[in-house]
Amino acid sequence: MKILFVSPFDFTNPGGVNEHILHLDAQFRRLGHETRILTPRALGEDESDDGHFIKLGTAVPIPANGSTARITLSPFVSGKVKELLQREQFDIIHLHEPLAPALPLLVLLHSQTVNVGTFHAARSYHLAYLYAKPFLGYFFNKLHGRIAVSPAALDFVSRYFPAHYELIPNGIDVTRFHPNVPPIATYDRPTILFVGRYNESRKGLKYLIEAMALVRREFPTCQLVVVGPGDPERYRRLIERVNVAEHVHFVGPVSADERPRYYTACDVFCAPATGRESFGIVLLEAMACGRPVVASDIRGYRFVVRHGVEGLLVERKNPEALALALVHLLADPALRHRLGQAGRARAEQFAWPVIAQQTLEYYERVRARVAPRLVRAAQRWTAGLPAFLRGPFDGEQS
Predict the structure, then answer these.
(1) 134 compared with 283, residue with greater pLDDT
(2) Do residues 317 and 299 make contact, with C-beta atoms less than 8 angstroms apart?
(3) Given this model, what pLDDT does residue 67 score?
(4) Is the pLDDT of residue 381 over 80?
(5) Whole-angstrom Cα distance, residue 206 to residue 76?
(6) From the CB of residue 32, how many other CB atoms can be counted at a distance below 10 Å?
(7) What sign has the CA pseudo-torsion 215, 216, 218, 223?
(8) How far, in Å, CA of 121 to CA of 131, rounded?
(9) How much is the pTM?
(10) pLDDT tens digit string along 189-207?
């Protein structure tokens, strides 16, 4: 098949959606499919097409879901999108966050082939979905297949756009994340690991720092290693107040090759997020490396980690509950080993070859269902668009 992946997000900044696309892309190419990736260009980049990546529209930073999304808002690449689709004649267009501005919407506007959308996000509400639903409904109805990466993501999007959604989760590279990866260091004291963009309050690092003060009562030499982008000064006062300055170490961002080595160096991995997590890739990374997990009991995490099987789930925003679970695991090596082994087995169910095969099988089911009526449906949909949508988007502005 000839497949186009569409991301609303700039690929020069790391993120779960773009990693998902890259892994599917690599698996599909390995199986002999022809793939392209359409994405916005970063500030300072030129529009380009290297035969694999196509970059159209300039990405700008927009606050979203407690983070920052770098997306393009310009409709003026519409003509170039239309020309691309007419020239390439893709069999499948797979859009990730398909209702995000502006590239996914422009692709849906002009697509005359099978459109599949994957919904990744989970949050408590979405003002754009709520107030722009009549407008977005046009584009949602052009999706022939709909995927959610977790029950949390499914519940969120179906609240605004009820439909059938196929549940196909995020994946993990079980060859890169593995218990036999050499650790970054051999620590001589109990070590808890946090991985994530810790400046985002939803990641819950402050609750883990508060928990460390309680963990130290039982394990005085215990340390917390924090990996990921952020500003440590944001937590300096808290660290001094709870007296853990000698026990919290900020590493900063690390390379993709180094990240597994931090997991295998720790005794316990902790993810104290407060919410708005649809899945939790870091949980899978830790589990694939054979490490037990302590995580907040939130919907997105519950789908990945089963309490008492691969890890311990605790009440969110509760330092005492975090500390109790961490102490329980640090005090019981046999339990850590059992949970770690179960985590590795669980992670193998999410291996990217498995996820890619599920996705391809879903493509085939969708194609078989919609192919006979695809052209007629596309013509009816375009004819029914309001004039203000048909006119401006068909221009050739750049």
Answers:
(1) 283
(2) no
(3) 63
(4) no
(5) 43
(6) 7
(7) positive
(8) 18
(9) 0.86
(10) 999 999 999 999 999 999 9
Q: What is the 3-state secondary structure (H, E, C) of 147-185?
A: EECCHHHHHHHHHHCCCCCEECCCCECCCCCCCCCCCCC
Calculate ∠ Cα 251-256-259, nearest 5°: 45
Burial class (CB in 10 A: 0-12, 13-18, 19+), 328: middle
* Alpha-carbon torsion (207, 213, 218, 219), positive or negative: positive
Write the burial class of residue 238 (CB in 10 Å: 0-12 exposed, 13-18 middle, 19+ buried): middle
CB 15 within 8 A of CB 9: yes
Asked if 280 and 257 touch (Cβ cutoff 8 Å), the reply is no
Partner residues linked to 311 by β-bridges: 293, 307
Indicate the residue type of 149.
V
Which DSSP symbol is given to 47?
Answer: P
Percent of the residues in the chain that have a pLDDT greater than 70, as a whole number: 91
For 75, counting Cβ atoms within 10 Å of its Cβ (0-12 exposed, 13-18 middle, 19+ buried), the class is middle
Q: Which residues of 252-277 are buried (b: 16+ CB within 10 A; e: fewer)?
A: eebeeeebbbbbbbbbbbbbbbbbbb
Per-chain mean pLDDT for the chain: 91
DSSP string, 117-153: EEE----S--HHHHHSHHHHHHHHTT-SEEEESSHHH
Q: How many CA atoms lie within 13 A of 314 on its CB side?
A: 25
What length does the chain have?
A: 398
